[in-house]
Design a protein that fits this description.
single chain, two-stranded antiparallel sheet, mainly alpha, Arc Repressor Mutant, subunit A, 115 residues
Length: 115
């Protein structure tokens, strides 16, 4: 499983909707296909992409093959996004520092004080 395949799988709105549904709990292909105006084989193809990306797993329960979210795939994506979030927070912290340094200068200039 790679982040490339993960984000490629997430690029499709149907697959994102399927993942959102699976966030509520395990479901069969027929249960997942219910709200969509597409065939069961088309839904199965979307599920295969999600499985190949490591975002969902299938278990065998008699004739049923319910799917659920795959912890490892979701955690890998979350870890990557957390790294980006930390980098973004550092950038905002640096910007806050720059703005804080500019503010006293603006006040000083308003009062007419020169260096």
């Amino acid at each position: 499983m790679s982040l490339d395949s993960t984000f490629l799988a997430l690029a499709d709105p149907t697959r994102r909707a399927l993942l959102a549904r699976l966030a509520d709990g395990e479901a069969t292909v027929m249960e997942l296909a219910e709200p969509f105006d597409m065939t069961q084989p088309a839904i199965s193809q979307h599920l295969k992409v999600l499985e190949d990306a490591g975002l969902i797993v299938r278990r065998v329960e008699g004739a049923k093959r319910p799917r659920r979210l795959a912890k490892a795939g979701i955690e890998a994506m979350e870890e990557w996004l957390s790294m980006l979030k930390r980098a973004l927070e550092k950038n905002y912290d640096r910007l806050d520092g720059v703005l804080a340094a500019i503010e006293p200068e603006k006040k000083r200039l308003k009062k007419g004080v020169k260096r």
